[in-house]
Amino acid sequence: DKRGMIDIELFSELTLDRWEVEIDLIRASFPERPIIASIAGGGNPHEWQEIVRRVEPHGINGYEMNVSCPNLGGKEKGEDKAEQNTKAMALAVGWVKEVTDLPVIVKLTPNVTDVAALAQAAEAAGADAVTTGNSLSGLGGIDLDTFAPLPTVDGISIFGGYGGPGLKPVSLRCTAVAAQALQIPVIGCGGISTWQDAAEYLAVGASIVEVCTAVMWNGCRIIEKLTKGLEAYLERKGYKTPTDITGKALSRIGSFPDLNLSIKLAASVDDSCNGCGICVEACASGGYQAITMDSDTARVDISRCDGCGLCVGVCPQESIHLTPRQ
Predict the structure, then answer these.
(1) What is the mean pLDDT of each run of 10 residues along the chain (326 residues)?
(2) N or C: less crowded end of the chain, CB within 10 Å?
(3) Which pathway does the protein contribute to (predicted)?
(4) 310 CB contacts (<8 Å, ≥6 apart)?
(5) 5-252 belongs to which homologous superfamily?
């Protein structure tokens, strides 16, 4: 499924001892590159602080606190999950900040109703930045022969983490919400597979972005493609750095009363229409029956068109556009 994938893994197969060796190898190979350690712990200071004390001497440049993995469902030993509890979040951030002067980033979850509250709790506790966000809690599917949930381990599964392109609208919203609520930088993450995706995250308030699934699917070579595409876009638009467009779209994101409901739109079809008829079916199923075929070209009855945009979304040729109603 190219829209995304579900994982039910936890953190790492490597021990902390092994990670100390691996970080040394990475630092030796890339002496000038920053290394951000992704760390996780439980509801006590020892677990978080022990990791920091162990890895920092090996050339770490900062930390990203993973308090948002959806695969650790439920509470353990009565502990509040930091990903969904502002007090637990603040405690965990404080524990890490006690033992390091390096930048601390908190990776937030999209699996909450109030992303801003969690982001503000992280900021108040001393976080230097937040990442929005981690994977979305989901279920991969059901094997209809055995009725085992997927992915399955001996017939049993759990709600896993959904990531990939399908996550982008959710994470894009989380990034915008956090950027509107915070003074510290926001890192955008979720569904980025093109330079356009990265630029959109910057536009809603991200200072930098993270890419995971696209690298897993395409290899690290995709990074060069993304950076070159973004650089070309910025040059074409007259911007010098990616942060020049950070937050450019934020002022345009409001609430429903901010919308000008007097503006009415209607669909129009350009000459690239190939007569596939997909829009006709979509419009009929949507209840308006405003599109018909005429000599293998889609025609819009403006008097019936509601301007909903469904036809624009389904057109494989990108031949349909919404324009102001005359």
Answers:
(1) 84 92 97 96 92 97 89 50 80 97 96 94 97 92 96 93 95 98 98 98 98 95 97 98 98 95 95 96 95 95 95 97 90
(2) C
(3) Pyrimidine metabolism; UMP biosynthesis via de novo pathway
(4) 282, 283, 286
(5) Aldolase class I (3.20.20.70)
